[in-house]
Amino acid sequence: MSRKALIAANWKMFKTPAEAKAFVDAFLPLVAGHDRDKIALFPSPVLLPTVIAAAKGSKVAIGAQNIHFAEEGAFTGETSVGQLKAVGGTHTLIGHSERRQYFGETDEIVNKKLHTALKHGLVPVVCVGEVLAERESGKTADVLKKQIAGAFAGITAEAAAPIVIAYEPVWAIGTGKTATPEIAVDAHKIIRAEVAKLLGPAVAAGIRILYGGSVKPDNAKTLIGQEEIDGALVGGASLKPDSFAAIVKY
Ligand code: 13P
């Protein structure tokens, strides 16, 4: 089954509205007519209206880096799915390793967020990945299976179609150390097999699994070019229009 790749920019906590608009204005002409892959930008919540307005009329999708699982309520500092949708956001990251590491996000929270995102028709990008100590002690497969099983608890095969998974080995994020294509492909196979176990082979065959972790213009092709790798989630190299466009057009 052919899966249309998704190339996504996670801007993390970077850019002002003016910088975000300048990015989109410069980026759109660089990818005009690019139809091979889906493109998405994930800016901070305060940038969303600016980025959505700037990208209007293009095929570039815009999403949040995080959502809360509640519909609304007294959750200071959080963003609801309803708020995201009201400004035109269509996608959301869930369970990025920085959320897990610095903000205590557990598999259980990731699961609740996934349920909320699907209920409201967002495209969720669920992030998983092992830390260095887990890889070095041979626990990578166990960690990935546990994260996937935790995230997917209670999700039915019927509901799962929009889900995207991002495999982001934590030791490759922001370090300049990229997983080799072999390492990434192995991990993707483990993830896909776990999805097949939970939701059946058809869902597993259709689900997109992105690679993230020091993706750059010069390594994009060797990674995204792999049959098992259905796109990329890019941090640092997505902050400049020319570099992100070069990755999109690998
Ligand atoms: P880098 O591309 O900067 O390693 O970040 C990857 C990432 O965390 C994307 O979500």
Description:
- The protein has 250 residues and is an alpha/beta fold.
- It has one domain: Aldolase class I (TIM Barrel, Alpha-Beta Barrel), CATH 3.20.20.70.
- The chain is 42% helix and 15% strand.
- The protein has eleven helices and eight strands.
- Strands 1-2-3-4-5-6-7-8 form an eight-stranded parallel β-barrel, surrounded by five helices.
- Helix 1 links the parallel strand 1 and strand 2.
- It starts with 5 loop residues before the first strand and ends with a helix.
- The structure holds 1,3-dihydroxyacetonephosphate.
- The site of 1,3-dihydroxyacetonephosphate (13P) has 14 residues, from strand 8.
What's the structural blueprint in terms of helices and strands?
Blueprint: E1 6-10, H1 17-31, E2 38-42, H2 48-55, E3 61-64, H3 81-86, E4 91-94, H4 97-103, H5 107-119, E5 123-128, H6 132-136, H7 140-151, E6 164-167, H8 181-199, H9 201-206, E7 208-212, H10 220-224, E8 231-234, H11 241-248
Parallel strand pairs: 1-2, 1-8, 2-3, 3-4, 4-5, 5-6, 6-7, 7-8
Helix pairs in contact: 1-2, 1-11, 5-7, 7-8
The structure holds 1,3-dihydroxyacetonephosphate (13P).
